[in-house]
Amino acid sequence: MDCKIICLKKISICCTLVLYSFFMQGQYCQNYGSKCDLIDNSYMKGSTSQGLKIANGQKVSAVSVFYEGNENYISVCGEFDVGLIQFKILNAETKEILYDNADDYYKQNISIQVEITTKIIIQLSAPNAKFSFTEGKCIGLLVAYKIK
Fold first, then answer.
1. Is residue 4 pLDDT above 70, yes or no?
2. 67-86: string of b/e by CB count within 10 Å (b at 16+)?
3. Tens of pLDDT, residues 94-131
4. Which member of 43, 54, 109, 142 has the lowest number of beta carbons within 10 Å of its beta carbon?
5. CB atoms < 10 A from the CB of 36, how many?
6. Cα separation values, 14 from 9, 23, 116, 134, Å
7. How many other C-beta atoms are found inside a 10 Å radius of the C-beta of residue 125?
């Protein structure tokens, strides 16, 4: 009986430590978006800017609104072994791909203007990552805008 209680306590402690390590890694990535290049100080960082944890083969997404009349800027960055980051900009309503940096030599930043206010999805992946499937790495997404 006492052995079962001790074993359950050990299992509980191990599970807690594993969950804590995942939580801490996520916290480490939280501000990674601030490491990405900002074109210049005339741009204001948007609320969509963030750090994300990504696993090999995984796609992560963020939703943003690009307003008519603003000049929008997207920059991505990641830890060394993430490799080049692919990002796609999709129309949130139609899922039409508006831009794919894979067609632009994996350019890591872009300035973009829209003709009408548009809700978009920014989809990120690391197709050439150099880390194991189970290991997560940090990538950053910086979304900024300049009101004209």
1. no
2. eeebbbbbbbbbbeebbbbb
3. 999 999 999 999 999 999 999 999 999 999 999 888 77
4. 109
5. 24
6. 9, 14, 52, 18
7. 20
pLDDT at 7: 52
Contacts of 6 (CB under 8 A, 6+ apart): none
Instruction: Name the token pair of 67.
Output: 């307003």
**DSSP helix/strand/coil, 108:** coil
Query: Whole-angstrom Cα distance, residue 44 to residue 3?
Result: 59
> Is the distance from CB of 35 to CB of 57 less than 8 angstroms?
no
Stated pTM of the model = 0.78
Q: How many CB atoms lie within 10 A of CB 135?
A: 11
Q: For residues 126 and 93, give the distance between their C-alpha atoms in angstroms, rounded to a whole number.
A: 25
DSSP letter string, 11-80 = HHHHHHHHHHHHHHHHHHHTTGGGGSPPS-TTSEE-TT-EEEEEETT-EEEEEEEEPTTEEEEEEEEE-G
Q: What confidence tens digit (pLDDT) does each residue in 33-79 have? A: 889 988 888 999 999 999 999 988 889 999 999 999 999 999 999 98
Q: Which residue type sits at 47?
A: S
